[in-house]
Write a structure and sequence with these properties.
The chain has about 270 residues and is mainly α. The protein is built from 15 helices and four strands. It starts with 19 loop residues before the first helix and ends with a helix.
């Protein structure tokens, strides 16, 4: 008898638990609980291509996720907060939870870039429809569905073009690459999100360059710390703290490596 069931599975690389996010996650208190929750969310989102919605219609709340992952509600709530800070999930106003890197673990590798673009577009469309809910009939009662789809497409294109002109993504990342000898891309979504957030808080291009210079002088010669000279660490929630460290006395600049590693781990636990 033929098996007509549809099976879903993750394709994890052998170094999955060596990624920066997983290393930071598991170094936290209760980190192994968080990594277990994360993997269960990955698996539960597969049926809907990376989105967590009960039966495709009902948003999961913390209590529901605690039940299906078999963890305490408080642990799940803290885990979700950490996952958001690490850029592993995105929670929309509708309550939909999207696993941001799920496309790395499903499908054929040759179509990875296309799948990631399509997945991001799906998230943006759901966010846009949520914002426009109740407004389209009043503002555009004569529009047919294809015309609405064209409006969304034009809006997404405008947002991308506007972001590139309003925010100095390229200049900041080019400067970081020049100082570190690395090759980060300014077009990466996570990188742009961190830069955009800091600029909205009032920080300037010069502030970014100062933080880069300062952290390169601190971490650039330490093998264990050099890996943290990256956009998500430098431009994350500790950005203001890094900026206010400048200048420090020579004695203060001689940071103990062990304390520095703990500082980086604490980036996501606060």
């Amino acid at each position: 008898m033929a098996d007509n069931k549809k099976y879903y599975y993750l394709k994890l690389k052998e170094n999955f638990f060596e990624s920066d996010s997983m290393v930071l996650l598991e170094n936290m208190k209760d980190g192994y609980l968080y990594s277990n929750i994360l993997l269960k969310l990955y698996l539960r989102s597969l049926k809907d291509g990376g989105r967590l919605m009960l039966n495709g219609a009902i948003p999961y709340n913390s209590q529901m996720l605690a039940s299906v992952t078999r963890h305490q509600v408080g642990t799940v709530e803290k885990a979700l907060t950490i996952f958001k800070e690490l850029g592993l999930i995105e929670i929309l106003d509708s309550g939909s939870i999207y696993i941001m890197n799920i496309q790395d673990f499903i499908g054929e590798s040759s179509s990875e870039a296309d799948r990631k673009r399509a997945y991001r577009s799906r998230i943006e469309r759901e966010r846009f429809h949520g914002q426009m809910s109740g407004q389209l009939e009043d503002k555009c009662p004569d529009k047919t569905p294809p015309e609405i789809e064209k409006e969304i497409e034009n809006r997404d294109k405008y947002i991308v073009e506007q972001s590139l002109t309003e925010y100095p993504f390229k200049e900041i990342i080019d400067y970081l690459n020049e100082k570190t000898g690395k090759a980060y891309k300014y077009s990466t979504e996570t990188t742009q999100r961190h830069i955009r957030a800091r600029i909205k808080e009032g920080f300037t291009l010069e502030d970014f360059k100062n933080v880069i210079d300062w952290k390169v002088s601190q971490w650039g010669r330490e093998e264990k710390m050099e890996r943290y000279l990256r956009p998500q660490t430098l431009f994350g929630t500790k950005f203001e703290s890094y900026l206010n460290e400048i200048p420090l006395s020579k004695k203060q600049q001689a940071i103990d490596v062990k304390e520095s590693v703990e500082e980086c781990i604490d980036l996501w636990s606060e």
